[in-house]
Each structure stands twice: as C-alpha cells, then as structure tokens.
Amino acid sequence: MQFFKFSLLFLLIPFIVQANSYTELECLDASYETTISHKGFPFGLTQNKLTTSKDKCVITIHHEKLKFIKDQWVIDVCREPVHMKKGAGAVEVIKRDGLCVEGSKSTYCGELNRLKVLIQDDGLIFAEGEKEDLSSDHGKVYCAFSVLQRYLDQGIVLSRHGGTVIPMPSSSPMPESNTPVNDPAQTPTPAKSEGNTGSF
Asked: What angle do CA 132, 118, 83 make, to 5 degrees?
C-alpha cells in the first residue's frame, strides 16, 4: 500500500508542476508590477530596489541603489525596430545595431549587458517564489526577463495577436554570426584532373 501511494504521487508530480506553470502567451499578455528589495553595499545599510512593471508588451525596469542612483528602462517588445528607452527624465533611445558578442563596444550591447546583470543580481536572485508561478515575484521577474531576452538579445519582435506568441523577424540589421560571408567569385573551385571519369 505504501508503494502504491508513493508511485501515485510520483506519477502526479509532472501534472502538478505543469498546472502551476504559464505559457509564453500568458506571460506576454500579463500585466503586473513587483518590487524586489534587498540590503546592499556597504554593510547592508542601504536598500537596492528593482521594480518590474509589465503592461502586456511594455516592460519598465526601474533600479534604485543607495537611494540616489536611479535608472529606468522602458522596452516595448512588440515594437520595431528593436530598441530600449533609458532614463526617467530625459529619455535616450538606444537602437539595436547588430548581434552582441563578447567584446562588443556598442552602446546598445553595453546597456543590454548592464540591464541583464541588474535583473539577475537584484531581481531573480532575491525574488520570492518559483519562476513557474506567474503570481509570485520570481515568476513575474522571470517572465519579463525571458521576454526581454527574446526581444533584446535575439532581436525577435513579438506579437500578441493570433492566439499564440508570434515571433516576427526584425528588420533591424542583425548579422547572424561573426564569420565572414564567402564571396562565390573568390571561392576556389576544384581543378579538373584529366583522365578522371568521376566514378567510384
């Protein structure tokens, strides 16, 4: 009897976990605001705060450190070209200018890396709850972070219409890799050898 109870519980775990998770469309359609705070440097005397506000496609990240160092980013993941707006007063628009690779010195890549580090270090690490639960703080921050990664990192413009999350290719310039494109005019062709019929 004990074995039967244990095996039944073991079989139900995937369904319980799946019941608490959310889909990409639920994440994209969600609207919420959550604030994560934790004691920061020096000596835990100050609070670091990360506020994540999401209104369907528009995600606002507000970060406060030492009460007077404040940053804000507004990103609309359904709007082209791929870009982010930075600043609480005067707004600076930073457009995606290509693929961000290690060593990139573009303003966009630097700002993207800074934003990702802040969300991870002051949001995901300190948020309560599970990432699969959209009603928890961790689920809310994780939802926004995953959508931002698709939009800002991969350059995929999302759409809420049509019943599913539809990735739309961005028209922003975006090289797929750092490998040079081979020019067919410069590609050497194998030399024909006389007497070879080409059969194996």
From this structure: 90
